[in-house]
Amino acid sequence: MSEKTYPSINDLTLEEKASLTSGGDAWHLQGVEAKGIPGYMITDGPHGLRKSNSATTGEVDLNNCVPATCFPPAAGLSSSWNPELIYRVGEAMAEECIQEKVAVILGPGVNIKRNPLCGRNFEYYGEDPYLAAETAAAYIEGMQAEGVMACVKHFVGNNQEWNRHHVSSDIDERTLHEIYLPAFRKAVTGAKVGAVMSSYNPLNCVHMTENRPLTVGLLREKWGFDGIFMSDWNATYSAVGAANGGLDLEMPRARFMNAENLRPALENGLVTEATVDEKCRHILQTLIAFGFLDREQTDAKIKERNPFSDQVALEVARGGIVLLKNEGGMLPFSSKVRDVVVMGPNAGRVPTGGGAGFVHPFSTVSVGE
Fold first, then answer.
1. Which of 96, 195, 250, 340 would disulfide-bridge 151, Cβ 3.0–4.6 Å?
2. What is the per-residue pLDDT for 53?
3. Residue 286: is its pLDDT beyond 80?
4. How many whole angstroms separate alpha carbon 184 and alpha carbon 190?
5. Is 61 noted as a catalytic residue in this protein?
6. Catalytic pick from 44, 128, 226, 232?
7. The overall pTM is greater than 0.90
8. Stretch 142-158: mean pLDDT, rounded?
C-alpha cells in the first residue's frame, strides 16, 4: 500500500500561498482547491456553536443561526472544578461541530477577568491563572480528541472591549508570565492546541499580529507551538508587519495578506519567500495532523440535537453551582426567609451573552421554572 502524498508548498504560486494564509469569508478558511487543499468551515464558540444559516454569504447573522446546545458560560465551567466533566463538554461540542461539518471552533477564551466592565467576561474562566489553565486544557483535549481543532484566544491581555483595536494593555514581564500567560502556555504545551488567535489590543503598544517576540520567540521557540497563529477578525493592521510578525492566517478576508501586497514586499526584500512558506507550512502541517485532508468533516450518525450534549450541559450546569452556607448568620437572610424574589433581566430566559459567545439554543429554562 503506497503512502499517501500531500500537497507541496513548492507547487503553490504566490497567489495560492496568499489564499492559504487568509480567510475566504467570516466562516471559512480558503484552501487551494486546485492543489487538493479544500477550504474548511469554522464557527464561533466558546459555549456552543454560533453557525449562521447564511454561512455561504460570509456574514454573521445573529437572527439566523442554527440551533445548538448552549453550554454554561466559562465561569460556570471553571466553577465546577471538574476537568473530567469539562473534557466531556469539549467532546460534546466537537460532536455538534462534526454534525455541522465544522472543522475549527474559536474557543476557549482564556483572558483573565481584570476589568468588571469587560463585555466578554462571561466568555472567560475567571481571575485565577491556574484554574483558567486547567479548565482550558480539559476543554481543548476533549474537543481535539474528537477531531475538531480548538483555537485558544485572545493572545494576550484582552481585558476590555472599549476601543479594543487601539488601547494598549501595558503589562510588565513578571505580571505577564504569572497572570496573563499561564492559560495560553498550558493550552500549547499541555493540551497541544491546534490554533492560537491574536487579541485586538496592542500589548505594550505593539499589536499582537506584529509582535514577533511573543508570537515567534515565546509561542514557537520557547513553548514549541507548531500550529496556526491566526488573527481575530480584522485584527491585522499591515502586510509587512503581520508577515514578519509571525501571523499565519488573516481573518476573515485577505485585506493585507494578499499577493498584491506581498509581491512588492518580496521584490523589495521587506519579506522573504521563506517567511511566506513558513506560514503555509504551519497551516498545511496542522490540517494534515488533524486528518482534515484524509476525511470528510462530518458524521451523519450524530443527531442534530445530541442527547449526549444535553446530558453534559445539565451536569456541568449543576456542577458549577456554588452553594453558600449561612453559617453564623453571615448572609443577609434570617431563618424565617422562605421565598426569594429574582428580579431584573436575568430572571427570565437569558441563556447566553452576545457577540462571539452568542448561541441560539434548542430550548431554554428560566430560574423560576
1. 195
2. 66
3. yes
4. 10
5. no
6. 232
7. yes
8. 97
